[in-house]
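**User:** Hello, beginner here. Are you able to go through the protein record under this note? It all follows right here:
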Amino acid sequence: MKYHIEKNTVQETLVIPLFGRLVCSEHFPELFSDPEAKRICDSLDYDFAEKRKKMESAAGLFGALEVAQRQYDLRCEAEAYLKEHPKAAVVNLGCGLDDTFSKVDNGQCKGYNIDLPDVIKVRNDLLPAGERETNLACDLNDFSWMDEIDASGGAVFFAAGVFYYFRTDDVKKLFCAMAEHFPGGVLAFDSCNKRGAKLMRKTWLKEAGITDVSAFFSLEDESELDRWSDRFASVTAKSYMRGYRDIYSKVGLFHKLMIRFCDGLVRMKIVRIAFGRHSKK
């Protein structure tokens, strides 16, 4: 029996990025392969016909490319950290139905997937935790979740499409608390500038009921974060679509233009913060 997905619910919002990864793997098989996305989508009682029509347009397919490339980028960050800290905690902040832990699992690390209770309920049904993996139902702004993470072997945190929904003050409090709690850890996440946030207002921000976009997190330049905490050992950033592997030559003209737009005008990046073991002097 297939798992039923209701329209206009949190379940549907979780399924769309998953479907984006599937569509991207179908159209760009030389770049992306995501059998888990196909497995879950095939197990759902949901009519994807309308979503597929939109996602297979030129603009929709670029959105699918973004979703898949973002997962690839953050996976690279997790794998790089695990090479130096093979027994680290791999922590997916605002996990949705993302399966990055299973993709980076080296047989020694521990995985934690954190999201709100209604999201974790769906995740437990569709993507139950595997060996050495834990699904945690918690609001990220309730810092008690930090006590659930075994960071004795180090910790790498990542968030995909999450902090755009957070007020800047809350993001700062969260990042500073993580730096205090997890010295030697690393956080990677995607960001864009205010122009990008304003464009998003017409789509998911509007749907989320957010009108005062200026209060929500955006980043003109990663150097802005250096002033947030003296426990940030370093703050670096790479291009979202070209920084971890350059897919520019693998796509058509329209998507090339979109990549240039994302890099130049909305400053889409993957930002990496390394937490120092001691405060800066």
About this structure: The CA atoms of residues 85 and 100 lie 17 Å apart. Residues 58-84 form the longest helix (27 residues). The domain at 84-275 is CATH 3.40.50.150 (Rossmann fold).
